[in-house]
Design brief:
about 150 residues, about 20% strand, Transglutaminase-like domain-containing protein, two-stranded parallel sheet, alpha+beta
Length: about 150
């Protein structure tokens, strides 16, 4: 299994200019939940998950270069999207990396899946699953089972 599926990659000091511009836009959010909603919208316009491409494009799962990842559009693996989302959230200034946890589930009860649990207040978390958005999951929901 991929190391960065279970371990957080470090947030780099310098990020691609295009990502920095988006992080600056996110920094103007009115609160943490607004920042999450805006980041979710940005990410789901640019990226999406495909159940079968997760297997057929397995070579993409090993890419960790932020500039290469951000230059793509369309399919990325769940953990890769989550890395990009984490970077944007932390660089927005609204979140610390400690506010962001990994959540895990099984899609179709067999395929390992990673999503994010983001703390927005004392004991209050919002699930973030950009990968599964195009399968009808809304903001705050995540892929699990046949759901």
């Amino acid at each position: 299994m991929l190391l960065n599926f279970f371990t957080k990659l470090p947030i780099p000091n310098k990020i691609p200019d295009a990502m920095q511009k988006i992080a600056e836009e996110l920094s103007r959010s009115v609160d943490k939940e607004d920042c999450l909603k805006r980041a979710h919208q940005i990410m789901t316009r640019k990226f999406r998950g495909y159940r079968f491409r997760t297997c057929t494009k397995i070579h993409l799962a090993f890419e960790t270069d932020l500039k290469k990842l951000w230059s793509r559009d369309g399919f990325l693996h769940c953990h890769t999207m989550n890395y990009l989302l984490r970077v944007l959230l932390v660089k927005s200034g609204w979140f610390d990396d400690l506010d962001i946890q990994f959540g895990y589930s099984l899609v179709w009860y067999v395929s390992p899946h990673q999503y994010l649990r983001v703390r927005i207040g004392e004991n209050k978390y919002i699930n973030m699953d950009v990968w599964n958005h195009h399968y009808g999951k809304k903001f705050g929901d995540y892929a699990h089972g046949f759901h």
